[in-house]
């Protein structure tokens, strides 16, 4: 490629970088503002908005609700998704493409439609405005992410290792616990991370089926943005950005370990 | 195998040995088959819980929603006697005396007035004003029934004399209705069983569908033009630059959607950073309207969907050997020809996957358009939620959901034929 063109491309990429992460960075200083308006120049420094979000109502209780639902949904989707990924990777499955279509369908259907359906259906079962309802809803929407991530990991997994374990007298469960699971753990962990991030950020289904008792963090932010936006939302956003950087680092670490495991398995 | 056995059988002296071999082979085959069956059973047992869970928490809810698009219980529940009395009525003239009697009887027989209110709401979808007409009638008739019923009803409201009102009641005696689905594409059930366009002032959803598709298409195209050079740079330049660039693409991916949406609201507002910057640079005199309109919607949606375009492109571009481009250049092709004839065609699978993903996600998007768009920028998903939550018209909400779902499944069908669904979601 001509050098001039490459320079143009690099300049374009730098602009794109500003576009991608600039907005997130710009709002961080405003969260330390001493005023309650949302623009520069900042009149002074203050931690008042952080004090505000550390109050139990509404922010900390919303955070707690989100954590409870996120952990619940992650557990359900990781266990079911990993088991199914193991099943699907064993080959020789009747109606494989139909099963595949069913298990990834929650990812294909727009969340608004899933949300409305769950609202109609869960209302009959008394699951609307309950923690259980939200956990199940988030788990079913997050499960394709787990399935896809774990399946990708299993593709590089050598089934001969399990056969070797069995020939040495290990029971299937023992072989799974001591051979398979440690090797696919990075995939399972990144799948679980995906599931948690999905639930932690999900607002559409929460709008439909959460009651006042299960008000999640995204829902609190959504209502705040729609009604009256003040810097406490930006303070919460700043905390969430820090959390997402940590999670992204965790994801990268898991992938690195997966690569390391691959090279061990290939020895 | 078969031929070997025949020859064995022909050689009499070795018949016994052949029998033994045959026995061993069939035992092996049986064992092999049994093992395979066992493997399949184990697979199904592992997948079973997930399939059961998805059926319960996803397929059944989706089915319930689809059912609500055609479910029509209100009038049947509220006015059974009226419907019976209208059987055989030709719909041309004022209905028989018995129909008025039956309507009054239904109103007085209703144990729960809510059932009548629901029927009124349902009938109101077809004739505006039916709800208040029925409510008024219910109030008066339940207080005191005056014989004959016909005279009393006509005294309450002269509209009861019009066959059109009775025809709507008669039509909605059916347990299932196409009304909502027709309304979702701006059609109405016409007289004599046909369909007709809705009156112009009530046409709402075809233009919403067009708007949804237009916005999604434009967002997809913008994303493609921004993502292509970026993805190419990530793959081609390498080193620290690529790592930083990739992190910039991934960070928004992991950052909360609401954080990014609130950031854009703050930045694009009248007093926001962008307007301050434009004024400081003397590009504009007065602050521009950048948010709560189409401009803000495009900016925020491109930002949110860009990673979904960049990542499939990067994964395809990584697999393209640089030798192809070099070979093309060594054969005398200029950079433009090389790009158009060699590089671009090789990246098309990534372009297809990225565009499909971006288009589908934006077509079903709810949060960002609701918060960043204006009243005239709302897409189908907004109305799905609006009818479910605000006006409690579940049938309409479900029918619009069906319309949106049909568009998206059609797209998946088309692209899935070409590339395969498993490949799009990264399972194969």
From TrEMBL, chain A:
Keywords: Cell inner membrane, Cell membrane, Membrane, Transmembrane, Transmembrane helix, Transport. Residues 63-251 form the ABC transmembrane type-1 domain. Its main location: membrane. The keyword Methyltransferase does not apply. Pfam families: BPD_transp_1. InterPro entries: MetI-like, MetI-like_sf. GO terms for biological process: transmembrane transport. PANTHER family: INNER MEMBRANE ABC TRANSPORTER PERMEASE PROTEIN YDCV. This is Putative spermidine/putrescine transport system permease protein.
TrEMBL record, chain B:
InterPro entries: MetI-like (IPR000515), MetI-like_sf (IPR035906). One of its GO terms (biological process) is transmembrane transport. This is Putative spermidine/putrescine transport system permease protein. The chain crosses the membrane at residues 41-70, 209-231, 243-267, 297-317, 350-367, 402-425. It is a multi-pass membrane protein. CDD domains: TM_PBP2. Keywords: Cell membrane, Membrane, Transmembrane, Transmembrane helix, Transport. It comes from Shinella granuli. Residues 209-415 form the ABC transmembrane type-1 domain. One of its GO terms (cellular component) is plasma membrane. Its main location: membrane. It is found in: Cell membrane. It comes from the Bacteria. PANTHER family: ABC TRANSPORTER PERMEASE PROTEIN, INNER MEMBRANE ABC TRANSPORTER PERMEASE PROTEIN YDCU-RELATED-RELATED. Pfam families: BPD_transp_1 (PF00528). PROSITE patterns: ABC_TM1. Belongs to the binding-protein-dependent transport system permease family. CysTW subfamily.
